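Students often ask why inverse folding is considered easier than folding. One informal answer: many sequences map to the same fold, so there is more than one right answer. In these notes we will look at a single instance of the problem. The structure comes first.
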């Protein structure tokens, strides 16, 4: 599928957030939107997010990615909510929305999904977590606090985790323990020898990104998206 790209400015308080919309052509066939943001460093032009946006658009999905260099999680969640509202304004048609993020971005996605699920059952159709930072490096004791929003998600919001087996911010056993406590339907895809940045020694960045994108698209098709 060919796809189209637009740059968007999202009003946020007294300023604007940079965002980019990637969608298949023709756009009228799109009924599912994936909103995605970056981790604590970088921005929406992080290569993995750009590759994911293009893969989603090629797969028939709309992808809205945005930059928010927020200092803390609460600020990032507010920004995410502003982008969600703008998405409705731009597209003026109802979509199923899935929230996605990388590292701190997926903490914001999960936190907003939890907030919105308290307000409406229809608000969010799923959460995609790339390299969920379950704890800071070397501080596994914080995982309960970091996973609180995940454990509070209702059962009708499915979650996909894509994490590296060597991610120093996501102990494999602790994530699997967290998943058991979640009410939502969860799938975990482990990237063999992957780091927190979802890179693998000895493998090209392109081949790893393609593997991650295939996992995301396969999961979306299982959700009936």
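Output (designed amino acids):
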């Amino acid at each position: 599928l060919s796809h189209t790209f637009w740059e968007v400015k999202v009003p946020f308080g007294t300023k604007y957030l940079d965002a980019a919309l990637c969608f298949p052509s023709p756009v009228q066939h799109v009924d599912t939107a994936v909103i995605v943001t970056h981790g604590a460093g970088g921005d929406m032009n992080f290569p993995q997010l750009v590759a994911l946006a293009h893969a989603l658009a090629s797969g028939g999905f709309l992808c809205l990615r945005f930059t928010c260099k927020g200092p803390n999680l609460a600020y990032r969640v507010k920004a995410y909510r502003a982008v969600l509202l703008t998405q409705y304004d731009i597209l003026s048609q109802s979509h199923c929305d899935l929230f996605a993020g990388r590292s701190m971005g997926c903490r914001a996605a999960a936190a907003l999904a939890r907030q919105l699920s308290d307000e409406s059952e229809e608000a969010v159709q799923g959460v995609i977590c790339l390299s969920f930072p379950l704890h800071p490096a070397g501080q596994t004791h914080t995982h309960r606090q970091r996973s609180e929003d995940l454990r509070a998600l209702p059962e009708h919001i499915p979650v996909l985790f894509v994490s590296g087996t060597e991610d120093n911010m996501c102990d494999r056993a602790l994530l699997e323990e967290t998943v058991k406590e979640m009410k939502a339907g969860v799938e975990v895809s482990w990237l063999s020898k992957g780091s927190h940045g979802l890179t693998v020694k000895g493998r090209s960045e392109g081949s790893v990104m393609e593997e991650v994108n295939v996992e995301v698209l396969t999961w979306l098709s299982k959700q009936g998206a």
